[in-house]
């Protein structure tokens, strides 16, 4: 098994599958709560996290996690003021990306391969990265399973949740934290620009198939895993970048699911 | 001890005071209706009483481990969320298929349990929400504009159902209505709210001591009480207010 991990393709597949597992169920919440733009803002902040991690010599996933979390909390704190959330998210999302890009260019040793953080660099995944990805995926899925009932109730109605003795504010923070964690573990695989895609495309495809929330989460995870493996083989076959290839595969599944759904209606 | 006891509460939305100087308590088994025009703070007050929003001053005491059955004004189910009625009734606690069937039967919609929530009509959704609210054997049933979107016979049926459930479960009922002229006839107490409490009392007391003229049960089998509300009033009843104020309500006069 350890020998197997020395094969870069095996490591790449494990990394991609781990990312898909982390994104599947959480992506459903991003779709249900309409947090796609929120996910973008959090993911874009990751570039700044990379720059700061290099500046302060801390591990990159840790830097990304902290900055992505700070961004998530900032968005949470600011929404509800006079700026509409939509434009506010636009400002924060693109502002964070631009600041991150500028910060990276100002790094003294400009040896940083920016492209690998924007689009992912799955073929250089280390054993340590694998540990981070699978640890992150296990944490995200574990927390979602633990709070599943409460989180579902809160999507339907905050007031109903309060009347049942739940605390939607705390659980919203929890989702923010989980999204930040997913950003931190997926940046190596799909890159900051496509993390939101990895969250929402499998979930959106799963919606076309599922009749219940649990089914949708399971389908989203399966579709994500298939897209991860398929995209990776496609990338090797055609010499294309791995992250975008995975997203292309997921998009193709979404289109196929839509077509099947349309045919069923006829 | 009352189930819910609010003392001199104030609730702000930013700089505006939505509710102020309100004290009220709900006793076991009684039916209390809060009426008031749109924007009078009814829903805000209700949400504060169940703990969904904070008050800026005053205290709200709820009986320890109070079981609340809450029926919201509306439920927007995002079409991206697949959810059957049965699954919905199992949130946030699993109650099992049998309890779901019993609750849906009680509210007369047992055939809906496998339907998608997003495919229900307004009246069906109200009954599903009511079924959900009675699942935990509530001590108090809280309804926010429960008959919104229902026609008059539909409202009458719904009120009759609530009364029957109250008699069965023995819970208190606290509800809110903007239909100033239509108050459930079984109501023990009417609270007229416009930011503050303008007046309160039994429909009978209110109508006897105030200059309010009432008409009970015309054409709705006695389930609806028509409760006429005069605009420029100077009343001296139960908890009269002494200042001039105008209600901008849309009650059919």
Automatic annotation (TrEMBL), chain A:
<dbReference type="InterPro" id="IPR037294">
    <property type="entry name" value="ABC_BtuC-like"/>
</dbReference>
<feature type="transmembrane region" description="Helical">
    <location>
        <begin position="241"/>
        <end position="260"/>
    </location>
</feature>
<dbReference type="GO" id="GO:0006829">
    <property type="term" value="P:zinc ion transport"/>
</dbReference>
<keyword id="KW-1133">Transmembrane helix</keyword>
<keyword id="KW-1003">Cell membrane</keyword>
<dbReference type="GO" id="GO:0010043">
    <property type="term" value="P:response to zinc ion"/>
</dbReference>
<dbReference type="GO" id="GO:0055085">
    <property type="term" value="P:transmembrane transport"/>
</dbReference>
<dbReference type="Pfam" id="PF00950">
    <property type="entry name" value="ABC-3"/>
</dbReference>
<comment type="function">
    <text>Involved in the high-affinity zinc uptake transport system.</text>
</comment>
<keyword id="KW-0862">Zinc</keyword>
<dbReference type="InterPro" id="IPR001626">
    <property type="entry name" value="ABC_TroCD"/>
</dbReference>
<keyword id="KW-0864">Zinc transport</keyword>
<feature type="transmembrane region" description="Helical">
    <location>
        <begin position="174"/>
        <end position="204"/>
    </location>
</feature>
<keyword id="KW-0406">Ion transport</keyword>
<keyword id="KW-0813">Transport</keyword>
<feature type="transmembrane region" description="Helical">
    <location>
        <begin position="12"/>
        <end position="32"/>
    </location>
</feature>
<feature type="transmembrane region" description="Helical">
    <location>
        <begin position="216"/>
        <end position="235"/>
    </location>
</feature>
<dbReference type="GO" id="GO:0043190">
    <property type="term" value="C:ATP-binding cassette (ABC) transporter complex"/>
</dbReference>
<feature type="transmembrane region" description="Helical">
    <location>
        <begin position="128"/>
        <end position="148"/>
    </location>
</feature>
<keyword id="KW-0472">Membrane</keyword>
<feature type="transmembrane region" description="Helical">
    <location>
        <begin position="87"/>
        <end position="107"/>
    </location>
</feature>
<comment type="similarity">
    <text>Belongs to the ABC-3 integral membrane protein family.</text>
</comment>
UniProtKB/TrEMBL annotation, chain B:
<keyword id="KW-0813">Transport</keyword>
<keyword id="KW-0378">Hydrolase</keyword>
<protein>
    <submittedName>
        <fullName>Zinc import ATP-binding protein ZnuC</fullName>
        <ecNumber>3.6.3.-</ecNumber>
    </submittedName>
</protein>
<keyword id="KW-0067">ATP-binding</keyword>
<dbReference type="InterPro" id="IPR050153">
    <property type="entry name" value="Metal_Ion_Import_ABC"/>
</dbReference>
<keyword id="KW-0406">Ion transport</keyword>
<dbReference type="GO" id="GO:0016887">
    <property type="term" value="F:ATP hydrolysis activity"/>
</dbReference>
<dbReference type="Pfam" id="PF00005">
    <property type="entry name" value="ABC_tran"/>
</dbReference>
<keyword id="KW-1278">Translocase</keyword>
<keyword id="KW-1003">Cell membrane</keyword>
<dbReference type="GO" id="GO:0005524">
    <property type="term" value="F:ATP binding"/>
</dbReference>
<feature type="domain" description="ABC transporter">
    <location>
        <begin position="4"/>
        <end position="219"/>
    </location>
</feature>
<dbReference type="GO" id="GO:0010043">
    <property type="term" value="P:response to zinc ion"/>
</dbReference>
<keyword id="KW-0547">Nucleotide-binding</keyword>
<dbReference type="InterPro" id="IPR003593">
    <property type="entry name" value="AAA+_ATPase"/>
</dbReference>
<dbReference type="GO" id="GO:0006829">
    <property type="term" value="P:zinc ion transport"/>
</dbReference>
<dbReference type="InterPro" id="IPR003439">
    <property type="entry name" value="ABC_transporter-like_ATP-bd"/>
</dbReference>
<keyword id="KW-0864">Zinc transport</keyword>
<dbReference type="InterPro" id="IPR017871">
    <property type="entry name" value="ABC_transporter-like_CS"/>
</dbReference>
<keyword id="KW-0862">Zinc</keyword>
<keyword id="KW-0472">Membrane</keyword>
<dbReference type="InterPro" id="IPR027417">
    <property type="entry name" value="P-loop_NTPase"/>
</dbReference>
């Amino acid at each position: 098994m350890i020998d197997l991990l020395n094969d870069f393709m095996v490591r790449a597949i494990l990394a991609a599958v781990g990312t898909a597992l982390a994104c599947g169920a959480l992506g459903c919440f991003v779709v249900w709560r309409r947090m796609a733009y929120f996910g973008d803002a959090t993911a874009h902040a990751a570039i700044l996290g990379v720059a700061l991690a290099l500046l302060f010599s801390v591990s990159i996933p840790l830097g990304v996690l902290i900055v992505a979390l700070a961004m998530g909390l900032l968005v949470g704190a600011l929404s509800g003021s006079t700026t509409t959330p939509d434009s506010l998210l636009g400002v924060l999302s693109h502002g964070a990306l631009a600041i991150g890009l500028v910060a990276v260019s100002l790094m003294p040793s400009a040896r940083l391969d920016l492209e690998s953080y924007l689009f992912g660099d799955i073929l250089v995944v280390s054993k340590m990265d694998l540990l981070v990805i699978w640890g992150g995926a296990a944490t995200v899925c574990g927390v979602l399973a633990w709070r599943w009932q409460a989180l579902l109730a809160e999507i339907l109605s905050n007031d109903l949740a309060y009347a049942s003795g739940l605390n939607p504010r705390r659980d919203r923070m929890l989702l923010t934290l989980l999204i930040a964690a997913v950003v931190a573990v997926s940046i190596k695989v799909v890159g900051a620009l496509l993390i939101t895609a990895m969250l929402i495309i499998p979930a959106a495809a799963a919606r076309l198939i599922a009749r219940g929330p649990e089914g949708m989460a399971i389908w989203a995870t399966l579709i994500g895993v298939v897209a991860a493996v398929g995209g990776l083989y496609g990338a090797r076959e055609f010499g294309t970048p791995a992250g975008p290839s995975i997203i292309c595969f997921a998009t193709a599944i979404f289109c196929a699911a839509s077509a099947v759904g349309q045919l069923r209606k006829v | 001890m009352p189930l819910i006891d609010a003392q001199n509460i104030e609730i702000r939305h930013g700089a505006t005071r939505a509710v102020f100087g309100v004290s009220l308590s709900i006793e076991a088994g009684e039916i209390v209706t809060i009426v008031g025009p749109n924007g009078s703070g009814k829903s805000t007050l209700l949400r504060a009483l169940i703990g969904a929003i904070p008050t800026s001053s005053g205290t709200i005491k709820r009986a320890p481990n109070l079981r609340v059955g809450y029926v919201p004004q509306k439920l927007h189910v995002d079409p991206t969320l697949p959810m059957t009625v049965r699954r919905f009734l199992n949130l946030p606690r699993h109650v099992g298929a049998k309890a779901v069937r019993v609750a849906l039967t009680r509210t007369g919609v047992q055939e809906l349990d496998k339907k998608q929530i997003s495919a229900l009509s307004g009246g069906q959704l109200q009954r599903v929400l009511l079924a959900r609210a009675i699942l935990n054997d509530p001590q108090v049933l809280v309804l926010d504009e429960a008959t919104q979107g229902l026609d008059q016979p539909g409202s009458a049926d719904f009120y009759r159902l609530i009364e029957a459930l109250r008699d069965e479960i023995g819970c208190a009922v606290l509800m809110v209505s903007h239909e100033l002229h239509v108050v459930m006839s079984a109501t023990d107490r009417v609270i007229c709210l416009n930011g503050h409490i303008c007046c309160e009392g039994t429909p009978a007391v209110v109508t006897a001591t105030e200059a309010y003229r009432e008409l009970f049960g015309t054409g709705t089998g006695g389930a609806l009480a028509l409760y006429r509300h005069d605009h420029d009033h100077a009343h001296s009843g139960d908890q009269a207010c002494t200042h001039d104020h105008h209600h901008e309500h849309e009650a059919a006069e």
